[in-house]
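Researcher: Next sequence.
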Amino acid sequence: MAQNPYEILGVASDATHDEIRKAYRKLAKTNHPDLNPGDAAAADRFAEIASAYDILGDTEKRGRFDRGEIDASGNERPAPGYYRDYAEAPEGHPYASSAGYEDMGDMSDFFSDIFGARGRGGPGGGGANVRMRGQDVRYHLEVDFLEAVTGATKRVTMPDGKALDIAIPEGLTDGQTLRLKGQGGPGYGGGPAGDAYVEISVRPHPRFTREGDDIVLVLPITIDEAVLGGKVEVPTTTGRVTMSVPKGASGGRTLRLRGKGVKKRGGGHGDQLVRLQIRLPDTIDDELAEFMEKWRAGHAYDPRKTMGEGR
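Model: Next structure:
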């Protein structure tokens, strides 16, 4: 009998979806076959973890398991009282005795005809007549920020040990789930295979962040670039470009590079938002300090006067 999926993932029966997902990710990382080559026990444990998350990570399946409609392996359970109802069937109930089957001869022949014919594909044999779809499997995959933005191909090892090349579509978002049709558990009796669902986590980037379909970058500029303006190089997700900084650019000002963002579902791309950050030199030498003192004496201004009084 399969172990309770809540016990496998180490979560309470009232755990939230996020708690279940975090527990799965932690266990999957530790027991992943790629990190434990040749370790059969880790591979078995990983398959067990994936099977548990296949049930608890799916709201519908989790509900059915909690209600006792499916077991820990995802198999259907008989309705409550099913066996009792027939075992305690009252006199006269059509299943209380063999009455009504006398014209069928020996009961063993009756069941042999049903199950034997189906197992052989009916009269004449040749393949199973009982067809069942394979079980769906779930997998968690981490990708780099740039891989999610520009697209990539990742080779992963599924819970059953099979290696798959997964196409990461351009513009993928954190938490998005990819469906790999037919890459789940094998079908029974010629039935179709189940599907593989791959949940994606996007690792943060040291410079870029994402706001919808836009890419955000904080760009340091020098004090003279802020005052005088000029051409500066700006990194984007697809390479460096040249951008003009206007004269008198204040820190915090946002400039826009059109079309340098994330691919949109309806076509086209978002923009890259470049937020300027004025950065002073590490050391303020005497010449700069003297210049600023003279300049302040004749050009003093208060950039905070529009903020009003605070509390």
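Model: Residues 85-128 have pLDDT under 50 and may be disordered. The chain has nine helices and eleven strands.
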